[in-house]
Write a structure and sequence with these properties.
Blueprint: E1 22-25, E2 30-33, E3 36-37, H1 38-44, H2 47-56, H3 62-73, H4 80-87, H5 95-106, H6 118-143, H7 157-166, H8 172-185, H9 192-201, H10 207-218, H11 226-235, H12 240-252, H13 271-287, H14 291-307, H15 313-323, H16 331-352
Antiparallel strand pairs: 1-2, 2-3
Length: 369
């Protein structure tokens, strides 16, 4: 007799890996990154601190931080061949697809492509992280008929990223808030894109292949694409009342309201969303216009009352990016860019202690003898 195994749709609750990288502790309501609370880190640390924590296992001291910044700046440039490749894509190609194509193309420039050692993977991760802002922004620019914009080494990592997007040097406040968003998106245990990357890496495929698969996963509006959908929804309304009516209309027609609900945070608000909500408030205060904040709050109240659902990170990240002058088509590519560090850490960990993923199925097809 065959042993019975429990079927869990979507692998819900199934433990698929052991990791020393991160954990969503739902009982303590913490996002743990190598023993540190991500929300607490977001209050006093920046994105590059998290990069060092994820790649090296510890928060950097002042000298280590300086060395990390220099290491990234010396690897900012992207091969012109990648930009030539982007110019051959149809102009209606989504920036996420341009980003994915560029990442795949980078594999050909790696002289140690078959090396899966932790040292080489870590080095590869740093180099990839350095290049991802230029890849992300210039994929979008080239597909929109614009010339690539070179990165600026005189700006911090996050300030340079935002500068490349908007074409102007950000204020200290803008840079700080954008950096905070990258930090909050940096790592989140085992969402679909991370699982996809680890599944691909488990075949002993290279880091570029695993990252390419992660981009494809993150493009879906049930994962990363939700932030774009949230902003388009907000732009459908011109006032708080309009937005309330829009939400109620969508609920009446049983439409999914993007930016709400999470497979893990089912009975409370995503703690990362709370941080972005405060960031939105800061930006609204600077402009003296609280319309977007009030609209978001109204939507939050309705969804709690009607569906007992709470905002996730995408719900408040979207209007923050809008306030920062970021094109909507870049919201999800930026999500991926921020998550690069976490993905690279997971791929490296998978390669270091690998077992091929090979699940089974529950057959419900035609009976046979």
């Amino acid at each position: 007799m065959k042993a019975e195994t429990k079927f869990a749709p979507g692998l819900d609750g199934v433990i698929a890996s052991e990791t020393a990288i991160s954990l969503l502790d739902t009982e303590l309501e913490k996002i743990v990154i190598r023993g540190h609370d991500l929300i607490e880190l977001s209050k006093s640390n920046d994105y590059l601190d998290i990069v060092h924590l994820l790649f090296e296992g510890s928060l950097p001291d002042q000298e280590e931080k300086k060395q990390l910044e220099e290491r990234l700046k010396t690897n900012y440039d992207v091969p012109n061949t990648i930009y030539d490749l982007l110019k051959m894509l149809p102009k209606d190609t989504h920036p996420m697809d341009g980003q994915r194509t560029s990442i795949s193309g980078l594999a050909g420039f790696d002289k140690k492509l078959d090396d899966r050692s932790q040292e080489t993977n870590n080095s590869r991760g740093y180099e990839f992280l350095a290049k991802i802002p230029a890849i992300t922004v210039n994929s979008y620019r080239i597909l929109n008929g614009k010339d690539p914009v070179p990165p600026r080494q005189d700006l911090s990592y996050s300030a340079n990223f935002l500068y490349m997007i908007t074409g102007k040097v950000p204020t200290e406040k803008e840079s700080e808030i954008f950096d905070r968003s990258l930090l909050l998106y940096s790592e989140h245990e085992m969402p679909n894109s991370t699982f996809a990357a680890r599944v691909i890496a488990s075949t002993n495929s290279d880091m570029y292949g695993a990252l390419t698969g992660a981009v494809a996963s993150l493009k879906g509006n049930l994962h990363g694409g939700a932030n774009e959908a949230v902003m388009y929804m907000l732009l459908e309304a011109e006032s708080v009342q309009d937005f309330e009516e829009l939400i109620m209309k969508k609920l009446h027609h049983k439409e999914k309201i993007m930016g709400f609900g999470h497979r893990v945070y089912m009975r409370k608000m995503d703690p990362r969303a709370l941080i972005m909500k405060e960031s939105l408030k800061e930006l609204c205060e600077e402009e003296g216009d609280y319309t977007l904040l009030e609209m978001c709050q109204a939507g939050e109240d309705i969804m709690k009352e009607e569906k007992n659902l709470y905002p996730n990170l995408d719900y408040y990240a979207a209007p923050v990016y809008w306030k920062l002058g970021i094109p909507i088509e870049l919201y999800t590519p930026i999500f991926f860019s921020a998550r690069t560090v976490g993905l690279c850490a997971h791929i490296t960990e998978q390669h270091a202690n690998n077992r091929l993923f090979r699940p089974r199925v529950n057959y419900i097809g035609e009976q046979y003898k």
